[in-house]
Amino acid sequence: MNILLIGSGGREHAMAFKLSQNPKVKKIYCAKGNGGTAMENKCENIKEKTIEELLKFAKENEIYITIVGPEELLIKGIVDEFNKEGLKIFGPSKKSACLEGSKDFSKRFMKKYGILTAEYESFTFAPKALEYLKDCIYPCVIKADGMAAGKGVVICNSFKEAEKVIYDFMIDDIFNGYGKKVVIEEFLEGVEASILSITDGDTLIPFISAKDHKQIFDNNQGPNTGGMGVIAPNPFVTDTVMKEFKESILKPTLRGLKEERIEFKGFLFFGLMITKKGVYLLEYNVRLGDPETQAILPLMKSDFYDAICSAYSGKLKGFEIKWEDKNSCALVISSLGYPCKYNTGFNITLDENIDGNVFISGGTLEGKDLKTSGGRVISLVTLGNDLEDSIKRCYKEVNKISFKDMYYRKDIGLI
Ligand code: AMP
Ligand code: GLY
């Protein structure tokens, strides 16, 4: 079987690595992939980018199934376009992708199906939003309704801060229309957890829980990033939390998908906040997380490709995903300056005997040289017999990686 895998980050490198382990998989075309997938077993990078180009490629290259990594093309409706042409593709339809693509849509869905989530109001008219913000409790959270490249959520501590956000999003329109509608939300205090899952629309199997570390600096300081490190399982996701998640979030989500006739075959990511008042759902993502995927897939004992095929054909019921009885630590190594300005083009040196997985995010292969090309460059993943062991191994192995302007947090899993 040939697979077309869309995406170019560390998540896609980890997916390619795991998919390549199935003997039925002959070739994985990565669009556009990166320096990591360029070197991965059975993989070849291709340049096709748009839905049209990808469709044409799938038709001409005997692609058995297309798997989509990032949300952008899902939200644009790539699944509907492939389905129209009778091509197999694993991911949610355009309508279902609104669970991630529109904060207002997902909040309405959560409320309608009784899923515990922060209280909120939506606004399309800036003066109304400002009026509401005058009397609201601070901190509050303002979210651009649409795709905002990870910059659409701002926690505001005062009316003055909130006013600026409303001007930026709704009046100055910094997100080209995607911030013209905003959701203003109650601020929740607690511990975050990521639960990734696979679903065929009928059955949903949660993966091992994970804990992301979003801020750039140690002690959770500085601006938010795409994620600087992950531990899995998440020590705060106790059996009680998992039970509550399954009863009050997972089950009503599945009920909602069915009642709304939202066809969903793909990955669904639940962003949770574990609070003193219960387990809240902050957001859905209609894809796997990055860097959660890098930490989680090396723990998966079952075959990833078989899980996807079972979900695609609606046969996830009865499929069991088995996990290693181990802990995983994924450390993201970035270019100094990320998530703001940074330089790229530096040679990456990797020792041959690294005891772990090296998943490339922002690195390209130029001839035989691997060079930095992005903010997040590498996810280094180590497994251990317990959390401490996995972390200790990660910080030992990281010394075998070097490039100019290399940066990483020193407290992944310790905070
Ligand atoms: P979202 O894209 O909705 O997950 O928001 C991005 C990040 O903002 C989350 O991972 C949280 O760290 C934070 N966040 C979002 N909503 C809230 C909330 N209601 N209370 C506290 N923090 C939040
Ligand atoms: N690590 C969070 C995300 O993938 O959205």
Automatic annotation (TrEMBL):
Occurrences of domain ATP-grasp (ranges): 107-313
Pfam families on file: GARS_A, GARS_C, GARS_N
GO biological process: 'de novo' IMP biosynthetic process; purine nucleobase biosynthetic process
Family statement drawn from the similarity comment of this UniProt entry: Belongs to the GARS family.
Signal peptide location: none
GO-annotated molecular function: ATP binding; metal ion binding; phosphoribosylamine-glycine ligase activity
UniProt entry tagged with the keyword Repeat: no
Necessary cofactors: Mg(2+); Mn(2+)
Protein keywords: ATP-binding, Ligase, Manganese, Metal-binding, Nucleotide-binding, Purine biosynthesis
Functional pathway: Purine metabolism; IMP biosynthesis via de novo pathway; N(1)-(5-phospho-D-ribosyl)glycinamide from 5-phospho-alpha-D-ribose 1-diphosphate: step 2/2
Protein name: Phosphoribosylamine--glycine ligase
EC number(s) recorded for this UniProt protein: 6.3.4.13
Domain of life: Bacteria
Gene3D superfamilies, alphabetized: 3.40.50.20, ATP-grasp fold, A domain (3.30.1490.20), ATP-grasp fold, B domain (3.30.470.20), Phosphoribosylglycinamide synthetase, C-terminal domain (3.90.600.10)
PROSITE patterns referenced in this protein's UniProt entry, alphabetically: ATP_GRASP (PS50975), GARS (PS00184)
Reactions that this protein is recorded to catalyse: 5-phospho-beta-D-ribosylamine + glycine + ATP = N(1)-(5-phospho-beta-D-ribosyl)glycinamide + ADP + phosphate + H(+)
Keyword NADP: no
Gene that produces this protein: purD
SUPFAM superfamilies documented for this protein: Glutathione synthetase ATP-binding domain-like, PreATP-grasp domain, Rudiment single hybrid motif
